[in-house]
Design a protein that fits this description.
The protein has a single domain, classed as 2-enoyl-CoA Hydratase, Chain A, domain 1, CATH 3.90.226.10. About 50% of the residues lie in helices and about 20% in strands. It has ten helices and eleven strands. The strands form three sheets. It has a six-stranded mixed β-sheet with strand order 1-2-4-7-9-11, sandwiched between helices. Strands 5-8-10 form a three-stranded parallel β-sheet. β1 and β2 form a beta hairpin. α1 runs parallel beside α3 and α3 runs antiparallel to α9. The longest helix is centred in the middle third of the chain and has 20 residues. The protein is globular and about 55 Å long.
Length: about 250
């Protein structure tokens, strides 16, 4: 696999949405846009009862924002547009009337932690360490912060946001409520995710739709909040500190 993609496979009521990028599943703007669109469409497809969100590859679920695109941002408007990609995906998952199961097979960084936090039920492997690295490059997890805080609590989110250079073990994430289960192998994870999705398909879709509304109660302002956060990140990415830091990643 060398070409980035977002693809969907629908079978027996289960929509499996998979994204991939050769740079450790980092997320450039076009992939984020396709991901948001695919999730939204799955939510309105009557054939779909449950959604599985996964990434390609073996040991990295998502490396977060595309550094290549971050380096090339030259003005605040472009910066906000880029970070709105994450806002749009999170809001698409929030508004999707179907339960979304996250399948996290490996390390997850920055925006990837935001994606994992925005699914409704998340399973992982013992390789799925998490890190909020944004402060390292002079910005912060502003856009994904509300989703991460919703899952980890303010204490857990602030801990990994401040300690931006440390990978936290999947067992820590499980104890904080991000992961429901942690498996020894990717094969065991895949089997559990599939069985769980098939079981959810036996439930009343209307009941699941109403439950999802309950679970996401209190997030109705995210249509305004996340763009405000994207604007902050779009401004900070232009700071001298961040520009100099990103040059080291070229």
């Amino acid at each position: 696999m060398t070409q980035p993609y977002v693809k969907e496979h629908i079978e027996n009521g289960i929509s499996t949405i998979e994204f991939f990028h050769p740079a450790h599943n980092s997320l450039p703007g076009d992939i984020l846009a396709k991901l948001a669109k695919t999730i939204t469409e799955a939510g309105t497809n009557d054939e779909v009862k449950v959604v599985i969100l996964k990434s390609g590859g073996d040991r990295t679920f998502c490396a977060g924002a595309s550094f290549k695109e971050l380096i090339n941002i030259e003005d605040e408007a472009t910066g906000k547009t880029f970070f709105m990609g994450f806002a749009n995906v999170i809001n698409a998952m929030r508004k999707c009337p179907k339960f979304i199961i996250g399948r996290v097979q490996g390390k997850t960084v920055g925006g990837g932690v935001g994606l994992a936090s925005s699914v409704d039920y998340c399973m992982a492997t013992k390789f799925a360490s998490i890190k909020l690295s944004e402060l390292n490059i002079g910005i912060g997890p502003f856009v994904v912060g509300p989703a991460v805080e919703r899952k980890l609590g303010l204490s857990g989110m602030s801990q990994i946001a401040i300690d931006a250079n440390t990978f936290y073990e999947p067992q820590w994430a499980k104890e904080k409520g991000l992961f429901a289960s942690v498996f020894e192998t990717t094969e065991a994870l895949d089997e559990a995710v599939q069985q769980f999705a098939e079981h959810l398909c036996t439930y009343n879709p209307e009941a699941m739709k109403e439950m999802k509304k309950v679970f996401w109660r209190g997030t109705e302002d995210w249509d305004e909040l996340l763009p405000e956060r994207a604007e902050i990140s779009g401004r900070l990415v232009l700071s001298e500190f961040t520009k100099e830091t990103l040059k080291r990643f070229k």
